[in-house]
Design brief:
Blueprint: E1 11-17, H1 24-29, E2 37-42, H2 49-55, E3 59-62, H3 68-79, E4 86-89, H4 101-109, E5 115-125, H5 132-149, E6 160-163, H6 164-170, H7 179-189, E7 194-201, H8 214-233
Parallel strand pairs: 1-2, 1-4, 2-3, 5-7
Antiparallel strand pairs: 4-6, 5-6
Helix pairs in contact: 5-8
């Protein structure tokens, strides 16, 4: 009589990347073995990001339209051809600890949540790994989510895991800076189960394309606040 062996979960990672040749290899190499496939979406890099990612075993897609959301949507279109059980989103700058992915997917595998956010807890952050404008923006946005949506989110961090079926139901649309807040707002609106898991965070390799520039900071703030209020008044 054959024993019923537990099925191996299918977990795929999407990494949007723009000029991350110096860090992308380390990110890929430090992902735990439980990851089924790593998909790096090259968002118009002018360095060797794509070549490095391929060398380290990732599937590399090209998305020339600039924008974090564009890159994520490109990755999801590819995954739809062979959907996983869980999708993990992770930046390519090596600020997050890829090994912490196991912490994010475990609550989903144990049916405790459909969405898990890696919260960059103060006690686990390297000094200056988040800029003052990032800290202020996160605090403001999360306070608004609490007031308007009765949310318990404390962060808008990009390191996150979500059940495939749940993600499909969100019908993600944002093409640029509003991707992360859109996901959290729709999780709240649909009353999906979610939790936060504290994760480590360090100073990234290279300069941030968002918080590292005045334009990026202003545009991100505009998109995040715009999504929060627009979504609230269109319910």
């Amino acid at each position: 009589m054959k024993e019923n062996k537990p099925s191996i979960p299918c977990i795929k990672v999407i990494i949007p990347a723009l000029n991350e040749a110096a860090s992308i290899g380390q990110v890929i190499d430090e992902l735990p073995a439980l990851v089924t496939e790593v998909v790096v979406v090259d968002n118009g890099s002018t360095d060797h990001t794509a070549l490095v990612a391929q060398k380290h075993g990732a599937t590399v897609l090209q998305e020339k339209r600039k924008g974090y959301g564009y890159a994520c949507l490109c990755g999801l279109e590819y995954l739809s051809l062979n959907p996983p059980q869980i999708v993990v989103f992770l930046d390519g700058d090596y600020a997050d600890y890829p090994a912490d992915l196991a912490l994010l997917v475990t609550p989903i595998l144990q049916h405790q949540a459909e969405f898990v956010l890696g919260a960059r807890a103060a006690a686990l952050r390297e000094p200056k790994s988040l800029t003052p404008q990032q800290l202020f923006g996160n605090a403001l946005a999360c306070w608004l989510l609490k007031i308007l949506y009765d949310s318990t989110f404390t962060d808008l961090g990009p390191f996150r895991a979500i059940q495939w079926e749940c993600l499909q139901s969100l019908n993600m649309q944002d093409k640029t800076y509003g991707w992360t807040i859109e996901m959290q707002l729709k999780i709240l609106r649909q009353k999906r189960t979610y939790i936060e898991v504290p994760v480590r965070y360090r100073n990234r390799i290279g300069q941030s394309k968002v918080s590292g520039t005045v334009k990026g900071t202003l545009m991100a703030g505009y998109k995040i606040l715009g999504w929060i209020f627009k979504f609230y008044f269109t319910k």
